[in-house]
Automatic annotation (TrEMBL), chain A:
<keyword id="KW-0067">ATP-binding</keyword>
<dbReference type="Pfam" id="PF08402">
    <property type="entry name" value="TOBE_2"/>
</dbReference>
<dbReference type="InterPro" id="IPR003593">
    <property type="entry name" value="AAA+_ATPase"/>
</dbReference>
<protein>
    <submittedName>
        <fullName>ABC transporter ATP-binding protein</fullName>
    </submittedName>
</protein>
<keyword id="KW-0547">Nucleotide-binding</keyword>
<comment type="function">
    <text>Involved in beta-(1--&gt;2)glucan export. Transmembrane domains (TMD) form a pore in the inner membrane and the ATP-binding domain (NBD) is responsible for energy generation.</text>
</comment>
<keyword id="KW-0813">Transport</keyword>
<dbReference type="InterPro" id="IPR027417">
    <property type="entry name" value="P-loop_NTPase"/>
</dbReference>
<feature type="domain" description="ABC transporter">
    <location>
        <begin position="4"/>
        <end position="234"/>
    </location>
</feature>
TrEMBL record, chain B:
<protein>
    <submittedName>
        <fullName>ABC transporter permease</fullName>
    </submittedName>
</protein>
<dbReference type="InterPro" id="IPR000515">
    <property type="entry name" value="MetI-like"/>
</dbReference>
<keyword id="KW-0812">Transmembrane</keyword>
<dbReference type="InterPro" id="IPR035906">
    <property type="entry name" value="MetI-like_sf"/>
</dbReference>
<feature type="transmembrane region" description="Helical">
    <location>
        <begin position="160"/>
        <end position="180"/>
    </location>
</feature>
<feature type="transmembrane region" description="Helical">
    <location>
        <begin position="12"/>
        <end position="34"/>
    </location>
</feature>
<feature type="transmembrane region" description="Helical">
    <location>
        <begin position="106"/>
        <end position="129"/>
    </location>
</feature>
<feature type="transmembrane region" description="Helical">
    <location>
        <begin position="213"/>
        <end position="235"/>
    </location>
</feature>
<keyword id="KW-1003">Cell membrane</keyword>
Length: 346, 291
């Protein structure tokens, strides 16, 4: 049963369609990420849920009730903005208390909930600090506490971690996930960082140019990308041009000197996608030459020049001897590790 | 080598700022010092200015209630003008800031446009509209039967405040405008998402944040109004004098330069004290918003 439901939502600014045919149903307690490149309409979609923008078409429902009919101030959603949008003239505690004041929560009760919210995000003792005197990470936590203290039905996060440095971002990701797990608030996170989306979410909505490319668990979107866009956007991938040869029996998929039994549905020119970590060095397969070999601690990164164009290979540093730069190698992978799509225009 | 370079380094800033510094000393500090000295000189109807050091002028200002009343009027007008510009200018800037692109630039131009017109011309405009029986508005209202006597405007403090507020408005609007630009563009949405209505947002979120802008605008407007000459001269004439017009009169009509210098000096000192003092107060009060 869907908790939050977006039904064919679209948004136009003048003649420009920014979000189109966006349908999604979110279960209660689920953690969803909107992932996509800059300008693909993530913020616009989030703002429509929040009520700062009205959808041009479509419906948004929360527990079956039409959300668009409710004023943004009455929706009871918690929102964390990319810039945090803290109230600079109020202390951390006053910032967090603001939403409770608006709900007429009695003073004593309010103080207790503010204290608990700040403690939850690890800011106990910072009650009387003003935002300007806090670090980016601390401001971020205040913004999160302020959004959560009102016990929102849905938590909306618009690139909340993008202003933080890499290390702090990772810490906050873990913390965010823990907090979300503990209190079980339905959460939608906007991000253009695929690692963030994959490590945090139950499901990812991959968007491109205002349209949904794929909805799926992190593993599904990574391993079974529904389109070339998804496979390119989520992590590195190798695309090899191949053909399906139906003149031989059984029919064969051929990419350079690599060949395997062809999948049933397709024929003619195809694109074969393989993740770099799924490619190994063998005795048969795509012939290639290693251009560079980069040591990265727990793994090796090889950049190769293959018969079907450039290829990237990642090998675990498991102690086995690895080929050197300039070596001629054969690239091979298991048929179940690749995804094959019909190649247009060839 | 390095010693030469270092010497040049210490000399370079002086050489570069020298011309401006000389101009500053020559046209500001020296005349100012001379004015202060002038205020201690003696003056007589027939003997003219005598370069002696006496406290006669200062004693006269301190004891004659005429001066106390005149200074009190000057500051009363300046305060009322400041209040009026703040009351009208702050909402004006806020509304302006919420307008969309094209209208915003158009109305900003409308607000700043008057700065291009001379203060004298703008004030004379008020005189044309409300100047006694012949003022355009007065005539219109009287012939329409709305009023029986012309609205008193010329030679009144109210008139002076209204005309000054009109002249000073751009400074207040610009100052508040600058404060509004510093607001986080999502701050109103943030407050709204927490359940605040439009009035609460203005009162609890916007006002406290633009207060420093209103106050710094108020300092500008106050000091400009207290030392304004053209507007009080036209509206108040010689009947309703303020410090600046009084100093002018002493210099050019009575020819009592020392007394005029004393009035001017006192106005300057009072203004500097008020401005510096209130500025310090504001900065301390709003430290967290500025930093
Ligand atoms: N008020 C507006 N008027 C006109 N066009 C707009 C408006 N707001 C957004 N757009 C356009 O809509 C598109 C999507 O914007 P949106 O902010 O949703 O992107 P985003 O996915 O959040 O990107 P980013 O990752 O950069 O934040 C952009 O091309 C943008 O130019
Ligand atoms: Mg965005």
């Amino acid at each position: 049963m869907a908790y939050l439901e977006l039904d064919r939502v679209a948004k136009q600014f003048g003649a420009q369609t920014v979000v189109d045919d966006f349908s999604l149903s979110v279960g209660k307690g689920e953690f969803i990420s909107f992932l996509g490149p800059s300008g693909c309409g993530k913020t616009t979609t989030l703002q429509m849920i929040a009520g700062f923008l009205d959808p041009t078409r479509g419906a948004i429902r929360l527990e079956g009730k039409d959300l668009t009919a409710i004023h943004p101030a009455k929706r009871g959603l918690g929102i964390v903005f990319q810039s945090y949008a803290l109230f600079p003239h109020m202390t951390a505690a006053e910032n967090v208390a603001f939403g409770l004041e608006m709900r007429n929560v009695p003073r004593a009760d309010r103080a207790e909930r503010v204290r608990a919210a700040l403690a939850m995000v690890g800011l106990a003792g910072y009650e009387d600090r003003h935002p300007r005197r806090m670090s980016g990470g601390q401001q971020q936590r205040v913004a999160l506490a302020r959004a959560l203290v009102i016990k929102p039905s849905v938590l909306l996060l618009d690139e909340p971690l993008s202003n933080l440095d890499a290390k702090l971002r990772e810490e906050m990701q873990i913390e965010l996930r823990q907090i979300q797990r503990t209190i079980g608030t339905t959460t939608i996170l906007v991000t253009h960082d695929q690692n963030e989306a994959m490590s945090l979410s139950d499901r990812i909505v991959v968007m491109s140019q205002g349209k949904i490319e794929q909805i799926g668990t992190p593993q599904e979107t990574y391993e079974k990308p529904a389109s070339a866009f998804v496979s390119q956007f989520l992590g590195k991938t190798n695309d090899f041009a191949g053909t399906i040869d139906r003149t031989v029996s059984p029919t064969q998929l051929v990419a350079g000197s690599w060949r395997a039994p062809a999948p049933a549905a397709l024929g003619g020119p195809v694109t074969v996608s393989v993740r770099p970590e799924r490619i190994g060095f063998g005795d048969t397969g795509l012939s290639a030459k290693i251009i560079t070999r980069i040591f990265q601690g727990n793994h090796w990164l090889f950049q190769c020049d293959s018969e079907c164009g450039p290829a990237i290979v990642i090998r675990q540093n498991d102690g086995t001897v690895q080929p050197a730069e300039g070596d001629a190698v054969r690239l091979t992978w298991r048929p179940e590790d690749m995804s094959v799509r019909a190649r247009a225009g060839a | 080598m390095s010693a030469v370079a270092e010497e040049r380094n210490t000399r370079a800033p002086w050489a570069l700022t020298g011309p401006a510094l000389m101009l500053f000393v020559g046209v500001l500090l020296v005349p100012l010092a001379m004015t202060v000295m002038l205020s201690f000189h003696d003056w007589g109807q027939y003997k003219g200015i005598e370069p002696v050091f006496i406290l006669k002028n200062w004693k006269e200002i301190a004891t004659d209630p005429y001066y106390a009343e005149m200074f009190w009027r000057t500051f009363r007008i300046a305060i009322l003008t400041t209040l009026l510009t703040a009351l009208l200018g702050a909402p004006e800037a806020y509304i302006l800031n919420r307008m969309s692109g094209r209208w915003k630039s158009f109305f900003l131009l409308v607000i700043l446009g008057p700065l291009l017109i001379s203060v004298v011309a703008r004030t004379l405009g008020w005189a044309l509209l409300f100047g006694g029986n012949n003022g355009l508005v007065n005539k219109l209202l009287m012939s329409a039967g709305a009023i029986r006597f012309p609205i008193p405007f010329m030679f009144t403090e109210t008139g002076m405040v209204v005309a000054l507020a009109h002249v000073m408005m751009p400074f207040m609007v610009l100052s508040v405008w600058a404060a509004l630009q510093r607001l986080d563009p999502q701050i109103e949405n943030a407050a709204m998402s927490l359940g605040a209505g439009p009035l609460t947002i203005i009162r609890r979120i916007i006002m406290p944040q633009i207060m420093p802008g209103v106050l710094s605008g108020a300092i500008i407007v106050f000091s400009l109004s207290a030392s304004a000459f053209a507007t009080p001269a036209i509206i108040g004439g010689r009947r309703l004098k303020v410090a600046a017009t009084l100093a002018y009169d002493e210099f050019l009509n009575t020819l009592n330069w020392p007394l005029g210098a004393a009035v001017a000096t006192l106005l300057l000192v009072a203004l500097v004290l008020i401005v510096v003092g209130s500025n310090a107060l504001i900065e301390r009060r709003y430290a967290e918003v500025f930093r």
